[in-house]
């Protein structure tokens, strides 16, 4: 009887331990507050993820939605019309997420998550 009880308790304790060590799945989030430091950190994370120049972000970025779409500018020829194929470049998508207490910038194109240590966000 005691061996069965001991085995049951050990099994239950090990299952509880496994569950508590699993990493929390990131959830979509929005910013709690936006200031120049937050904008700079987001710009640097976006540049790090996709490369290229620093992007300009609105003052209310990630406050209403967890998603950000960045469109590429359309190059125009000397006649003022879009250059063939220049308008076919897809938008770049970024998602603000939260895992535990950490805010992350997720770049689905590369399956990349960049920690944002100085950014405060909340799950939608």
Provide structural commentary.
With 124 residues, this protein is α+β, with helices and mostly antiparallel strands. It has one domain (25-123). Helices cover 28% and strands 24% of the residues. The chain has two helices and six strands, in the order H-E-H-E-E-E-E-E. Strands 1, 2, 3, 4, 5 and 6 form a six-stranded antiparallel sheet that branches. A hairpin with a 2-residue loop joins strand 3 and strand 4 (102-107). The protein is elongated and about 50 Å long. Mean pLDDT is 85; it is low at 5-12 and 15-21.
* Secondary-structure element series: HEHEEEEE
Please give the share of residues in helix.
25-40%
As a whole number of angstroms, the C-alpha radius of gyration is 22 Å
Low-pLDDT runs: 5-12, 15-21
Q: Please work out how many helical segments DSSP would assign.
A: 2
Structural class: alpha+beta
**Beta strands, count:** 6
Distance between the termini: 49 Å
* Multimerization status: single chain
Task: Indicate the mean pLDDT.
Answer: 85
Sheet bearing the most strands, described? 6 strands, antiparallel
Beta-strand percentage range: 15-25%
How many domain units?
1
Shape: elongated
